[in-house]
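Practice problem: predict the structure.
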Amino acid sequence: MLLFAPRRSTFERVGKTGASRDIMTDSVNLDGIPAEEVDGFLAYRAKVAGTNISAQTLLATDYLNHFNEIIMLLEMVPDMPDCLDEAKEWQPKGYQDHFRDSTFSDKELAIEAYAHVPSKFRRPFEDILAQMNQNVFETIDRLQKIIDEENGHEEMLKDAARMGSRNVQLLMDRASAVIHGSDRAMDQSEIDGMLNG
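Answer:
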């Protein structure tokens, strides 16, 4: 296992001369990060220190707020079917686009850092996001079908809304795990099992 101890942003006095050197107390696991990605990752890892951007991955959980809105709307549809029209207006938003439009305090840094997220985190993160987006649209279609074909059958609406929002939430939890350093990719059968279980 290759470990690297990057620099800390706070300084420690060393020796009689008062010279400073930086020492990082924690280490980062570079296993699985291609050599051509290491320098950019380490440079931005130092830049994100002390922010709400994960130094493990260079990703920020603030991005997941985009999905909180649609989960809330889906959950409201059984009681207020008109919310489905608002849910239909929801659109996927790329990570960097989310931050361009956000009030996140370190939004420019989040946008820049995304280009340096190691592929071992970026690939599973983007795969999960694609599955989340697909799940949102499938749930919206399912809810619309119940409204159109079943005259808005209340129990069917509740079940479909609950299952759809639960599935998006489960995927959000998985995306959050990646943001915090899990590089374990899920294959399609695992995702299907999680969503159907």
